[in-house]
Amino acid sequence: MFTAKNVLVINCGSSSLKFSLIEPNSGKTLVNGLAERLMTEQASITINNANEKNNLMLAAPFDHKIAIEQLVQILTEANLISQISAVGHRVVHGGEEYSQPTLINDDVKQTITNLSKLAPLHNPANLVGIEAAQQAFTTLPQVAIFDTAFHQTMPEKAFMYALPYELYQQESIRKYGFHGTSHFFVSQQAATLLSKPINQCSFISAHLGNGCSITAVKNGESVDSSMGFTPLEGIMMGTRSGSIDPGIIFYLVEQLNYSLSDVNQLLNKKSGLLGLSQLSNDCRTLEQTALASNDSKSRLAKLALDVFCYQIAKSIASFSASLTALDCLIFTGGIGENSSYVREQVLAQLSLLNFVIDVEQNNTIRLGASGNICKENSRPCLVVPTNEEWVIAEQTASLLQKIS
Ligand code: ADP
Fold first, then answer.
1. Are 122 and 268 in contact (CB under 8 A)?
2. What percent of the chain is predicted at pLDDT more than 90?
3. How far apart are CA 80 and CA 46, in angstroms?
4. pLDDT at 369 over 70
5. 368 φψ region: left (φ > 0), alpha (ψ -120 to 50), beta (else)
6. Nearest-CA residue for atom 3 of ligand 1
7. Nearest residue CA, atom 27 of ligand 1?
8. How confident is the model at residue 4 (pLDDT cuts 50, 70, 90)?
9. Residue 49: is its pLDDT beyond 90?
10. Does ligand 1 come within 6 angstroms of the Cβ of 282?
11. 32: Cβ–Cβ under 8 A, 6 or more apart, which residues?
12. Threshold 0.90, pTM exceeds
């Protein structure tokens, strides 16, 4: 019988590895940290353990395996290693194959590999994390939690593109949606805050971080989401353009001689808040610059924020077509949880949906707080801090309990 002690949660990127040791029932984080600049000689690992923060340089070959070995050593010294009962991995793309948490075996790893063509930057990095953790924790079960899984309930009319049908049949080109773990978590939290069963709740959830996505949740299930075949679709983000006229790509290639790799860089890394403002992808920097003075720098910072807030409001309004009721709007992610400015600008453009902001509440509910930022006679708008790591720990433990 599996007993859930603590779950080690791993979120592996191509040059970074985030980890948290979490008690799955309470969500209590015992240790967390980040290995970054992996695959370079500057590779280092930062670990937060009981109010103590340590930063160590990693040894050659500066890879994910070394990072996990260093983590194992630290957890051993802190007498925590025997307290770990499983490893939960964030995996970005589960395609149509995975709509549930999944125990990792060789077949699952092969499927994640096959799905790499849909997520070439993310799935291979997630697999590196899985392999490194399997080598370090040979006896522990490992579970994959997919970022796309929550959106597998989307109906066909929401996930199909108006492209020749065979591109869906033969190449799996369709909308998948991302940030599923976050939209799932904040929906559950919002239902609790509203004291209503989740299967009777309908929400529009706005996850606004470096990546941004909006999701329509009907009776607790995702029915549409703004990110699509890749995380590039939808509203503009920190450095991603979001949806643009695909004709712009032909123009860039045919008239300006961009290569496909240039277009990829432009749309994923040089656009969004950064590209428009010509200053920063960081919302805080833009707010400070926009409010500080009246020069051309502040004008562009304000323009970037204006376009951002307008696109968020338009996307939220469009998702009302996916729902028959709307219990509340949810803001989450670094910007959604903290930026009173963005929240106010967005809600000001949604008065047709009966949102009336409570300015004082909006200025107060930040920095980890949750609650309603609208007036009593308004439709509620809840700020809910996300906690994807807790979902991964909780779903990992639940799956293992179910199958043991
Ligand atoms: P990621 O998607 O990488 O997890 P986060 O969810 O942490 O990112 O969100 C990062 C964004 O949140 C940045 O644009 C940052 O400026 C913004 N942010 C964080 N704190 C604040 C704040 N107090 N006010 C405005 N924006 C904030």
1. no
2. 93
3. 17
4. yes
5. left
6. 210
7. 335
8. low
9. no
10. yes
11. 18, 19, 20, 21, 47, 48, 389
12. yes
